[in-house]
Specification:
2 copies of one chain form a homodimer. Chain A is 31% helix and 26% strand. By secondary structure, chain A is an alpha/beta fold. Chain A has 2 domains: 272 residues, Spore Coat Polysaccharide Biosynthesis Protein SpsA, Chain A (Alpha-Beta Complex); 81 residues, no CATH class. A 5-stranded mixed barrel of chain A has the order 6-9-7-8-10. Chain A has a 4-stranded mixed sheet with strand order 12-14-16-17. In chain A, strands 5-11 form a two-stranded antiparallel sheet. In chain A, α3 packs across α6 and α6 packs across α7. At the A-B interface, β15, β16, β17 and α11 of A face β15, β16, β17 and α11 of B. β15 of chain A pairs parallel with β17 of chain B, so a sheet runs across the interface.
């Protein structure tokens, strides 16, 4: 069975604050090269190759980030990088994406994925996507689950039901029993022990016409507002039409508009590695450390340190003595010092800055 | 009994590394304004006023530091700021100072003191100096002892013998039994418990002719080498003559050349506060902290921190989360992160830089 080549839609409008002070409102996580020389969105596009060539990739971002996103992704057709004029939550974004993909190919299947995850190896990831696309071709909604490596309280989970299909190379397709929010530690452990739960990757696949049909049923006002805009895509009138259509839209999430309404959701469990890299703490798993567990990025000098992350992007030398489990990040205008395990609290710093701090640090 | 007004000689050639990264070879502790708006050498001169007016103050420094020292002390006669061409330990420095003071006044008493201590209040300090000067006028060598506030292992001690004199306002003069080096913790505690020990302040007073007489007896080659140089003081020939005389000198300390040889040493115990401020840790006692014990200097933002020192001299905001007992110091080219209590280890950083690090950080 051969299908038309699918499209990928990368959701890249996030204004992540969890990597402050490196991430800023104008330079969020997906546009940063925290892990290596490529930015996370560049890596997201690259790991789709060759399965989804660049000309079949769309990016939905914000007006503030559009120019930098285009600069980082010169291989994409410029009009494929679409800037939402205002944030109206994920259902509007998915509806717009589905309308645009449908214009490109009325029978197209689309893979919706975040711009800021770490996934590998690419061939195993693409193999899972391929199974997902084949599954979605028959209708319904496909999500991707990751077998939990530990009892994470930072991820949402998917409870799986009976297996519908298993490929020769072990990619499993099951019915979804239900989605669950981030659990507490004990619940997370019970999920892992049961074997019936997967981490919810936030990656989805469906046919554009299936999405639009579902949205037309549950949130018809959304499709009605955005369908005419899609017709002007590629013309000079598009941006203004999009702004006019978006402004009055009610905020509604794809979880509410699609996932909770759908009765045909399947989950593909692939054997690829996946990490949402949600905070500085996550980097301890992704960057090379010395024998004492100290990660050195930029100019650093450590004496008697263990299990720490020293990251200088300011040109300054970070000189560390006797540290254990400490994250130090230096940028041109700010220095973060925070114990490992508490980097979720970086949000509190950003909140404080929003309330009363120097606004140029946001 | 009225004596001629004494001179003060400030030894200011130290290249302290203990406040790295703020202190540098070209900008050591005595030239820094770590504690307030005045530098430590400026404070040292100021707290002698009005007892020792600026025109009776000499400073012995190094060629590298002379220009900045003159800039910071415009109230001193320029020739009173004398630059040693090379370091030849403290006996050469004291010999030179005594020769210069003797040229100003052949019967002068001189107070020798470091440039980088925190002492107060000034009136009580000056009162102790006054008693010391009166005592030194009768001959012999006078040192100043501080009643220990705690069992410091970072200071040298003076063991006192019988009391020779006590002023009406309680300034005590005793014979010195012996000087002792920095003790271990148990020994330090026994010193404190005994009541017979004082912290050795490193401040001395003696008549210039008494010093020179003692040096002529124990290290005649030193006086012989430097006496002719002193004659050219104030002329253009001085610097070259000093360089020529200093170069071949053997290094010898004032402890060895004077203190260990002298049989008439007295100690004045004043009731002034004294701190050598030997490391970042010492600042915890001298800078104002918030209710959680966090010291904020420069731009800082602390959440859930306790007992920490956050000092930004780089313009960067130090954002700290969940720290306890941590010192963070940011300058334009380096950031120090070091637990409280380990700041003596800063020397290890400087040693590492000397060996292999960027030399511009020294």
């Amino acid at each position: 069975m051969s299908h038309k080549a699918p499209y990928a839609v990368i959701m890249a409008g996030g204004s992540g604050t969890r990597f402050w002070p490196l991430s800023r409102a104008a330079n969020p996580k997906q546009l940063l090269n925290i892990l290596n020389d490529t930015t996370m969105i560049q890596a997201t596009v690259a790991r789709l190759q060759p399965y989804i060539p660049a000309e079949r990739v769309l990016v939905i971002t914000t007006e503030q980030l559009a120019a930098e996103t285009r600069r980082q992704l010169p291989m994409l057709p410029p009009e494929h990088i679409v800037a939402e004029p205002v944030g109206r939550d994920t259902a509007a974004c998915v509806c717009l994406a589905a309308l645009l993909v449908e214009r490109l190919d009325s029978e197209a299947t689309m893979i919706l994925l975040p711009a800021d995850q770490v996934i590998g190896p690419a061939d195993r990831f693409q193999r899972a996507l391929q199974v997902g696309v084949e599954t979605a071709h028959g209708g319904g909604l496909v999500t991707y689950g990751i077998t939990p490596r530990f009892a994470s309280t930072g991820y949402g989970y998917v409870k799986v039901a009976e297996e519908l299909h298993r490929s020769e190379d072990g990619v499993s397709v099951r019915k979804v029993d239900r989605f669950v929010e981030k659990p507490d530690a004990a619940t997370a452990q019970s999920y892992v022990d049961s074997g019936d739960y997967r981490w919810n990757s936030g990656i989805f696949t469906w046919r554009a016409d299936v999405v639009l049909s579902a949205l037309s049923q549950h949130t018809p006002w959304l499709v009605k507002a955005l369908a005419p805009v899609a017709d002007s895509w590629g013309s000079d009138a598009f941006a203004a039409a999009l702004a006019e259509a978006y402004e009055p839209l009610k905020k509604i999430s794809v979880d509410y508009a699609l996932l909770e309404q759908a009765d045909d959701i399947k989950v593909v469990t692939g054997d690829f590695d996946w990490d949402d890299v949600g905070s500085w703490d996550a980097l301890y798993d992704h960057l090379p450390a010395d024998e004492a567990g100290v990660i050195h990025q930029g100019e650093t000098l450590a004496i008697d340190c263990r299990d720490s992350l020293l990251l200088s992007r300011s040109g300054q030398t970070i000189a560390a003595i006797g540290l254990e489990g400490l994250t130090v990040v230096a940028t041109a205008d700010a220095i973060l010092v925070c114990p490992k395990g508490q980097s979720q609290e970086v949000k509190a710093i950003v909140d404080r800055l929003k309330a009363s701090g120097p606004q140029n640090l946001l």
